[in-house]
């Protein structure tokens, strides 16, 4: 498995392309903006885009969906039907699916938004806006903050040592580094 990073300058959000090198299949996570670099990467490497995973329905994470759907025919997964209406395979709760011959675990982690999902592929967690390299995600109420922190404690901080966090904004980090930082801050 290889992971490639693409930055959406307009929203300063991260988009990831996860590639199964054996099958030449790809998954895109949070296509905030489709750039010529992203399309070139898929086309020049003869990658088949099989799925798009959406961590939450905010523009800086989904604006590129429309373009990708015009060019390719990927399955679209997220917790909000409005992402792509009838083309969205709505996920709820926690579970796993098989995409690009890889196991993708998904976890509902509401708080930043009600539809926030975190995806685990191998030892990487794609956290969207649930966590960044230095903080918990933003919330709009103290109750949402409580729900978010509770879910992070039970679902994310319980992951195995060596887990790499790939956030929706900012640089990647490790679970251990983030736990240490948050312990010192709060």
Summary, kept brief:
The protein is α/β, with parallel strands linked by helices.
Number of helices: 5
Termini Cα gap = 35 Å
Strands side by side in the biggest sheet: 1-2-3-4-5-6
Question: Total strand count, please?
Answer: 12
- SSE order, one letter for each helix or strand: EEEHEHHEEEEEEHEEH
Descriptive overview:
This protein is α/β, with parallel strands linked by helices and 186 residues long. 25% of the residues lie in helices and 33% in strands. Strands 1-2-3-4-5-6 form a six-stranded mixed β-sheet, with helices on one face. The chain has a six-stranded mixed β-sheet with strand order 7-8-9-10-11-12. Strand 1 and strand 2 (13-20) form a beta hairpin. The longest helix is centred in the last third of the chain and has 15 residues, at 142-156.
Topology:
Blueprint: E1 2-8, E2 13-20, E3 25-29, H1 36-44, E4 48-53, H2 59-62, H3 65-71, E5 75-78, E6 88-90, E7 94-99, E8 102-108, E9 117-121, E10 124-128, H4 142-156, E11 164-167, E12 173-174, H5 175-185
Parallel strand pairs: 3-4, 4-5, 5-6, 10-11
Antiparallel strand pairs: 1-2, 2-3, 7-8, 8-9, 9-10, 11-12
Summary keywords:
186 residues, six-stranded mixed beta sheet, 5 helices, 12 strands, 33% strand, globular
